[in-house]
Amino acid sequence: METIDSRNTDKNQLPPDQISPKEVVNRAILFKNQLIRSWKLIAAFMVIGAVVGFFIDLNLDKRPTYTAWITFNLGGSSGQSGMGELGNIASMFGMGGGAPDANIFTGENFLYYVVSKPIITRSLLREVDTTANHKDLMINYYINHSGIQEDEWEKDDTLRNFRFVRGKKMKDFTRLEMKALDGVFTRIKSETTIAQLDRKSSFLTLKTGLHSEPLAAAWVNILLETVQEDYTEKQTQKTSEMYTLMKARRDSLGRLLGQNDANLARYIDQNQQIVVAEGQLQQSKLTRNSTFLQQLYYSAVQSVDNLRLSLIKEAPLFTIVEPVSLPLYKESHEPYAMQAGIVLGLMLGLVFVFLKQTYQSIMQS
């Protein structure tokens, strides 16, 4: 009989790696009782989490951030059609090696070029329409509405009240102006990004996030305008120099041709009845000079026209695929650290109570 009972008892016992439902219920009851006894400890964890979250919310920047972006495509002769086509255009108009090298503006180089200090500085010193009938420098507009006065310049009254003067060149800036410019550049560069829209696409997206909606929209527009302007100047630099030189030559030949024609007309009027060979020789010389100058002048006019056409062909084409559209995307920074601290404190308290109960069970066994 004892043998049969021992066999039944062995059959009712579970393997060591399994827990019966009864054991689970018992452990849950024990854990509940432990929670009731440790409610003060859990409340302390929650209070600590709430206090930490409160101080985090106190220092949180609650100003909304407006994100503006503009998607564009860089085309034209900016590395898209190849240097071979540029060489053909140059030789067609007799420019020789006048086609510029665009390699520094391709790939990652162009992405760095857009947010480089010369480009951002040039954009900041351009004029922008701040209101309906008022223009101001972009950098002053940024200082007034970006929040830099309350953040980086909070303890510097000199910079807080400083504004740039319109029309002053950067080479004439004082030490204070350079300090203010560097401070604005450092901040706005961190707020501006440019990236390829997709790996399989040639579209680029210029994006910024600022605390003022009109400021964000104005900044991406004026930055892209500056990039297009500066990029075009660099791409067509050699041809522009030749164009300026040929315009000066055309104007000079035009003045010489006018003077020679006036001298010829005056000589004919004064010597209509002359028959001596010396007089006829002088008239022939003036006529020959006039013909020669006309040929040079017409050739210079044609070269100027060809170079002007070449400038158009060499200039890169910026096509705006997706312009800035208002209203901008608004990201609100609501304070939630206190609520998160309370939840985190509750979780830590529960974990601590569970570990405490487990430790006590191990020590008792």
UniProtKB/TrEMBL annotation:
GO terms for MF: protein tyrosine kinase activity
Keyword Phosphoprotein among record annotations: no
Tree of life domain: Bacteria
Keyword vocabulary terms for this entry: Membrane, Transmembrane, Transmembrane helix
Xref: InterPro entries: Bact_polysacc_biosynth/exp
Transmembrane segments: 39-56, 336-355
GO CC terms: plasma membrane
PANTHER family: FERRIC ENTEROBACTIN TRANSPORT PROTEIN FEPE, TYROSINE-PROTEIN KINASE
Stated name of the protein: Lipopolysaccharide biosynthesis protein
Organism: Larkinella terrae
